[in-house]
Write a structure and sequence with these properties.
Number of strands: 19
Strand content: 15-25%
Radius of gyration: 31 Å
Shape: elongated
GO molecular function, one term: ATP hydrolysis activity
Organism: Guillardia theta
Subcellular location: Cytoplasm
Oligomer: single chain
Pfam family, one: Cpn60_TCP1
CATH architecture of the largest domain: Orthogonal Bundle
Keywords: ATP-binding, Chaperone, Cytoplasm, Nucleotide-binding
Helix content: 40-55%
Length: 537
Amino acid sequence: MPLGPMEVGGKMTTMLGGTGGIALTELLKDGHKHFQGIDEAVAKNIEACKKLSTITRTSIGPNGMNKMVVNHLGKLFVTNDAATIVKEMEVIHPAAKLVALASQTQKEEIGDTTNLVVVLAGTLLEGAEALLRQGLPIADIIAGYTKAYRACLTHIDSLSVKSIENIRSEEEVSNALRATVCSKQNGLEDFLCPLIAKACVQIVPKEASQFNVDNVRVAKIQGMSVYDSFLVKGFVLTRDSEGTIKHVTDAKIVVFGTEVDLSATETKGNVLIKNAEELMNYSKSEEEAIEKIVQEIAATGVNVLVAQSTISEMSLHFLERAKIMVIKCPSKFEIARLCKLSGATSLARFGAPLPEEIGKADRVSVDELGGQPCTTFVRDSLEQTKVSTIILRASTSNHLDDLSRAIDNGVNIYKQMTKDSRFVAGGGACELRMAAHLKEMGGKTPGLEQYAIKKYAEALETIPRTLAENAGQDTTSTISNLYADHTAGKLNHGINIDSPGTRDMLEVLCLRCFPPPSKPVSPRQAFSIIWYPRRKP
């Protein structure tokens, strides 16, 4: 007779009929785990998201710890940037992968606060798990979280504490970027923020919302100190020129996306040479053809040639004779940036360009920095500058990568600033104000949804609590003091990372970019994916 479920050691163990009462656990290998029912699936989904959140949580804020990540290619990353950590990790679990994708979306849309997405998702699910174990239905938890989410969207408009009046003012932009850069490179914000602000302001178009983050380039050169970094009003290639010409002023530039050589057929052929004269004349026609093309190019006034593909020795010889500087740039992305800067058109044929296909630059020169030759294309006129490059110096490649990520975050924040120049207080002040609002709302909400709303408030409270924890402070007393300050009307007070206690975030210019009005996956859809993994939201 088949036996039903039996409780052994506090766990439900299924007994199999027809096996003499042998438990299923005894038939499986050592180290196995057996789960059944939707509750166990939900618990495992939440556990995976919590583990991902735990990994990145200790990296929040200026005092966040670095993580060593080795990706599938064996490359080592030492960083506290959550976007890089999550991107380079191999996240396999579907629920955790959903959180990782949300973090990547945040990186693409905003460029910052990616860690907040992961930590907040993990904390929300942790609160949901506690409610599930208390017996709350999943539908009530989803409804409560959705109400809290909508309340946050409504309430956040009242949290704006500052607005950038002029996004073309380097000083205002620099002050607005301090919190973003400080969270990645604490102590270097006084140097990096003005550099980023100047790089962005000098290339912002008349229609500021059309600002392109890709037009702020970073050239990483190992050696010297971070404080030796500088800005170039133009484009920099970390390559040497191909010939002997290293400096050109009032440059006229032609860009070829193909090889600089005569086109050849794909078929093979044989040539029969009968005497010495035929041998001498064999390559003469090819030389004459290349020389003619180079003379036609030189006749247009071109004195700088940039090629994406190979450059034959014969072509280089005649280009040198014509006093044309030759540069090879194999990257399509860099070719596109160069064309944008100079106004040139990338040609698919090797021949003389039309006048409208020729680009211009005030000067093109090859200089050596830290043993690395760099080719610089400079346009001094602000009206004509469309690309700016930050020459980044540091002693190690890992430090260069970290600095580059901090600059990318700052540039992305400037992009967001061109759409909405409002800012909220940082240091956990914004999250704590929303948490207090949700706690008050939860106390007035009837039914089981109030418990989910209060858990949402606790999840928001995790951000200032984590900032205090990473700064080595007593989290309980710090959060209590912060609540007391907000109750007393000091609504801009946040966590002071320099010394225990709180501080006015507006005074120290610790500001966070205002969240965009876009609404990605709603809580109902997200939690449906996590709780019902086989069902589409």
